[in-house]
């Protein structure tokens, strides 16, 4: 098994048994995906999995309809490696190994990590010599670029039918058109995914069309980063000179990928709209270029606006729901966006506040018993401003803005009192205001991470694993545990939040946990990585 996961042995068979459900079987071997796509907005032609090898597709033990594609990244050359070696460096493998699990723990759709193996005897020549192989899985590793191949209409039909039936499992009758439904379902899934990215301040860094998943999964963990000091224009990839994939543009870039998908499928969708049924074998073999263009234009004009509306509505609704959840609000009110969410983000931006620390602190907010208590809470929030940034922030103005926002927030929480639910999920009509605040704190802490996989944590773990693999493995396991349980009160958080909390009675492990939950050194705030693997 270690040899398979490390890319030294191959799972394959020429005589794999057929079955009623899989009559096409009769052998299997590893495969890599071929696709084309746009990179940084420019058509790049044929690409493909240069270092990713899928070794098996298998059903979930208790859910036979759930099929997972198991994939190695960094196991060696593939038919699409071109002049590269197909290997992965240790740092990028650690980043994907930890990053995908951190995203999963936040409830954002993603591929998952299964293992990480260091191949110390294999040399990978980049800036220095290092190597590793990470094992991932997802329901499918199909990307948007699969439909952006050079036109081969019959292959497009076969691929599209497989995606609609086997991957997306669309509820369609035999012979029913599937092209439009495929595009809209992919739109829904990716709108929900990117809404989660925005709500949790996560940046992908390189959202080329070949890095966007048909299933709406977060894939290809390259120069990703969690937000530190909130900056809507932050760029986490230092090779993205123009800021194409900046945090604030991520929904726009997903929309760009969806338009590319629609453009690829438009001739097929147009043919289905004309006939009223699914296209059949060799559906375009006798069609002229003029007819193909006619189908494309008809489908694009008929679907484009609907697709964009679906995306915007789902992305906005999902993001709003997540932001209200992070604030511990139980109901959705039309004014929440303008009265609370946008003003909060504006204050974080203007006052140079840490995105995640601010939300976590707001989880503990209760009605102040005095003006002094309110001032103390506001000071806790503003203590997150770094010494360098303090020179740019008008603290008096910041305190005034926070005081006004918290006063509105207090009233909004009190409006929710009658909608509190007990532990059984029943509406508790007799809940006191104090109990309502306690319930809000409890719920908010479950959605605002105490631990965030920040850039400084990743850089430190990578260096430790590189310098001392045995000791580094234990620290890697600890960070993985924290990343998988980000809402826990790591580092005795209750002691830190108390008035006399000084950390003197903490164990060595608790002190280390608290350090990992810190914002980190100022030099690492907004740290950028590159696309290098």
UniProtKB/TrEMBL annotation:
- What is the native source organism of this protein? Lentinula edodes
InterPro entries recorded: SelO
Similarity comment text for this entry: Belongs to the SELO family.
Record's GO cellular component terms: mitochondrion
Q: Write out the entry's keywords from A to Z.
A: ATP-binding, Magnesium, Metal-binding, Nucleotide-binding, Nucleotidyltransferase, Transferase
One Pfam family recorded for the sequence? SelO
Molecular function as annotated in GO? AMPylase activity; ATP binding; metal ion binding
Which domain of life, per UniProt?
A: Eukaryota
Q: What is this protein called?
A: Selenoprotein O
* Required cofactor names: Mg(2+)
